[in-house]
Design a protein that fits this description.
Blueprint lengths: L6 H13 L7 H12 L5 H4 L1 H20 L6 H17 L7 H29 L5 H27 L5 H4 L5 H10 L4 H7 L11 H17 L1 H4 L1 H7 L5 H28 L4 H18 L3 H29 L5 H30 L6 H26 L1
Helix pairs in contact: 1-6, 1-7, 1-9, 2-7, 4-6, 4-17, 5-6, 5-9, 6-16, 6-17, 7-14, 7-16, 11-17, 11-18, 13-14, 14-16, 15-16, 15-18
Length: 390
């Protein structure tokens, strides 16, 4: 399976899965248009549920997939269910505009997106060996970032014509779905586990749980940078909301850069890619939070985007070193769910900082978050370095 035969098919199927990963980004430029064009009679705070319900349901979707993936449900079946569900539930609101119906469809869409997260990471672990995987993960990260940019640009463009067209953008996933149907082959290791090779007796290592907890806390503390960006820019008179939108896209550009340099950096850092990424994450957050003016904001966002996509694939790649094959799907699901939980809790963190400090400056949560990011980056780095040495 991991020889030269079928390698192209393995790469194509993995990239197809990664391209579909951030389809949730369709919502970002469309949300305001949905509120003003489709549901002007509904309070904006209620319309926001079209976004948050999807994000919340991604968490149980990821965990559910992690439990059964490669055991009770094959990778191929789960991928088809995930992409097919996103296509159907994502596009149906174009034809039925009732808000309650659309809300249910957005919940199903989020759950199906969640189903796909463990597939991406676990396929990379199981389809490629230790020598191939860093390069493939780098390419996959780049493709995922390009997908994010594509979804945002197309969604924003069609919303200028009709906000409802944004729902149809989910139909783009027909292309990667066809590629998966043609090229995706079931990983051999999972077929063995399904036959009772003893993988069911394996336990999830505490290091995998620890890593997921660290990712959750750091993302929880970092996320105000992305959420409060437009508010900071307007509060400090740096520019208009359009500038914030452009800078937000630079975070994804940082993700793409990480994909291009990941394999080379992985080789040069002697596999200490996670501590390197964490150091960059602290630097990016510090530049954004402590700098003043447009340039520090731009630099901080790009560096942070680069850092996140060094830590993420670096962690997934490290699972091959200490997570049993039968538990790699669950480890990947837990890791991604940690990020989603952190993002959800950030809203309470921002309001809590404002309430405790009495400071309405939108930069303050970013500065408090910087301290948390730095502390937990050190803890995670020390634990990772000790694991490598042992």
């Amino acid at each position: 399976m991991k020889g030269s035969s079928g390698k192209t098919g393995r790469i194509v199927s993995l990239l197809a899965v990664y391209f579909a990963a951030n389809v949730i980004f369709i919502t970002s430029p469309a949300l305001n248009s949905w509120a003003t064009q489709l549901y002007p009679e509904i309070p904006y705070s209620t319309v926001l549920f079209l976004s948050t319900i999807s994000s919340l349901l991604m968490i149980p979707g990821s965990l559910a997939a992690g439990v059964v993936l490669g055991k009770k449900v094959s990778f191929r079946t789960m991928t088809i269910v995930s992409m097919g569900g996103i296509i159907v539930a994502g596009c149906l609101p174009f034809f039925v505009r009732n808000f309650t119906f659309v809300l249910v469809m957005r919940a199903i869409t989020g759950f199906c997106i969640g189903l796909g997260f463990p597939i991406q990471s676990t396929l990379a672990l199981k389809l490629f060996d230790d020598e191939e995987r860093p390069g493939v993960l780098g390419i996959a990260t780049f493709v995922m970032a390009c997908g994010s940019i594509f979804y945002m640009l197309v969604s924003g463009y069609v919303c200028d014509i009709d906000a409802a067209y944004a729902f149809l953008v989910h139909g783009v996933l027909i292309v990667p779905l066809v590629l998966v149907i043609i090229f995706l082959k079931e990983p051999e290791k999972d077929l063995q586990a399904a036959d009772g090779a003893g993988g069911s007796k394996d336990k999830l290592p505490m290091m995998a749980v620890f890593t997921s907890a660290m990712f959750m806390v750091i993302f929880f503390a970092f996320y105000p940078v992305l959420l409060n960006m437009s508010a900071i820019i307007e509060y400090e008179g740096i520019g208009a909301a359009a500038i914030a939108g452009i800078i937000s896209s630079l975070y994804t550009i940082g993700n793409a850069i990480a994909g291009l340099v990941f394999a080379g950096l992985y080789k040069r850092t002697g596999k200490y890619i996670i501590p390197v990424g964490l150091v960059l994450w602290v630097i990016g957050t510090a530049v954004f939070s402590l700098g003043h003016g447009l340039m520090p904001i731009v630099a901080g966002v790009v560096i942070s985007g680069l850092a996140v996509q060094l830590v993420w694939p670096g962690t997934i790649n490290s699972f091959s070193e200490y997570v049993p094959a039968g538990k790699q799907g669950m480890a990947s699901a837990l890791f991604v769910s940690g990020m989603n939980v952190g993002c959800f809790l950030t809203t309470f963190f921002i309001s809590g900082v404002a309430g405790i400090t009495g400071n309405a400056n939108p930069r303050t949560p970013c500065q408090v978050g910087l301290v948390i990011v730095a502390i937990f980056a050190v803890i995670w780095s020390v634990a990772e370095i000790r694991r490598k040495r042992n």
